């Protein structure tokens, strides 16, 4: 994607060919900064602190973290310890485990002297394949938007609601839930995006709004609880969200608040779609509510909020009454019965085990 006329991915190799550079997403929306990762600890910190976030980008960063670890020490012990360290950074996004499993299985049989170079090749491949996957998701999702646009009067816009950030900042490029939006916008379809702020980390207000603005997509930021009202008023034509983990039966785990949007969409007859690359499907799970681990993050994310003052300085302030306990579950699970369809690189699927297994037989046997 373009930022002020310059092409960017969210993660890339530095000019020296071995260090890794990322866009530091903790700095949004008040500044655009990049950060250099030089070792395993840097990569683990980037994932844990959410300098990088979004399931596909977490997986790509983990792959490069293995590269950095093997560059320092290519032994079996180093490889296994690196995988263990990175796996512990974020428990919910399955792409993390998928990428680490892929790297370990490919690298462990190799002679230690061959591992670092092979690791960089595979990590680059993971990034390129993520972009190709997102492009395919975009094409399939754009057909849904085009079909809705055909029911509109001339010049009338398609209104899309999204939650959290499943944009290019959550992937290597293009995004998942936003890929159909970008393709439709670039193809001349009049559309508008309702952007949930997505408390407590404000990924919608900070990230989705930022990238939609940079791309010139009309959008409006709303508070998280406004979506149901807009659906009741006929102001939402469809909902598209991303996912951090999807079960083999179609249950979807996404940023906290997604489940409530799905309930409102069901009640109002609004189509609710989930855009996902196949590595986000966890074929070992069948019951999202019982089996997907939900990350509990620090209560400080709820107690405080960072913003720009009228004087122009960026400051963090407390917003919760002193002495109050705070809970901060980062994700919730939307049951398959509430989902209209899964937008994947292999087409739009029904949210059930049979459809998923038919579309991805190679993933089941992998």
Structural class of the secondary elements? alpha/beta
The tally of helices reads: 13
Report the sheet with the most strands, covering strand number, pairing sense and barrel closure: 7 strands, mixed
Query: In total, how many beta strands?
Result: 18
Rg over alpha carbons: 20 Å
Q: What's the number of domains?
A: 2
| Biggest sheet, spatial arrangement of strands | 8-7-6-9-12-17-18
Query: What overall form do the CA principal axes indicate?
Result: globular
Quaternary status = single chain
Nutshell version of this structure?
The protein is of the alpha/beta class and 366 residues long. It has helices at residues 40-48, 55-72, 76-87, 94-107, 112-149, 179-186, 203-215, 227-232, 258-268, 288-291, 300-303, 353-359, 361-365; strands at residues 2-3, 6-7, 11-13, 20-23, 34-37, 158-162, 191-196, 219-222, 238-241, 245-247, 252-255, 272-275, 281-282, 304-308, 314-318, 331-334, 341-344, 347-349. 41% of the residues lie in helices and 19% in strands.
């Amino acid at each position: 994607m373009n930022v002020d006329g310059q092409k960017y991915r969210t993660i890339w190799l530095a000019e020296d060919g071995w260090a890794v550079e990322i866009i530091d997403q903790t700095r949004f929306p008040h500044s655009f900064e990049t950060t250099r990762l030089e070792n395993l600890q840097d990569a683990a910190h980037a994932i844990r602190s959410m300098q990088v976030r979004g399931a596909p980008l977490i997986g790509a960063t983990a792959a490069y973290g293995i590269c950095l670890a093997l560059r320092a020490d290519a032994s079996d012990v180093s490889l296994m310890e690196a995988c263990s360290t990175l796996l512990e950074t974020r428990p919910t996004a399955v792409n993390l485990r998928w990428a680490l499993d892929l790297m370990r299985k490919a690298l462990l049989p190799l002679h230690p002297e061959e591992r670092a170079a092979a690791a960089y090749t595979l990590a680059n491949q993971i990034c390129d394949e993520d972009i190709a996957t997102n492009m395919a998701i975009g094409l399939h999702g754009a057909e849904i938007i085009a079909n809705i646009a055909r029911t509109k009067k001339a010049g009338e816009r398609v209104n899309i609601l999204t939650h959290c950030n499943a944009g290019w900042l959550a992937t290597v490029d293009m995004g998942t839930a936003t890929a159909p939006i970008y393709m439709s916008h670039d193809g001349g379809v009049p559309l508008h995006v309702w952007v949930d702020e997505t408390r407590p980390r404000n990924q919608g207000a900070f990230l989705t709004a930022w990238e939609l603005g940079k791309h010139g997509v009309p959008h409006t930021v709303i508070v998280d609880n406004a979506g149901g009202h807009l659906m009741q008023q006929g102001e939402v034509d469809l909902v598209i969200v991303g996912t951090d983990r999807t079960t083999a039966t179609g249950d979807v785990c996404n940023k906290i608040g997604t489940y409530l949007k799905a309930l409102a969409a069901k009640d109002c007859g609004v189509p609710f779609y989930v855009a996902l690359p196949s590595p986000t499907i966890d074929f070992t799970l069948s019951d999202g509510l019982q089996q997907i681990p939900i990350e509990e993050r620090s209560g400080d994310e709820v107690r405080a909020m960072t913003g720009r003052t009228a004087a122009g300085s960026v400051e963090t302030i407390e917003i919760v009454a002193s002495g109050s306990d705070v809970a901060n579950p980062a994700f919730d699970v939307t049951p398959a019965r509430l989902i209209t369809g899964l937008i994947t690189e292999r087409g739009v699927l029904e949210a059930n085990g049979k459809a998923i297994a038919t579309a991805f037989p190679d993933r089941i046997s992998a």
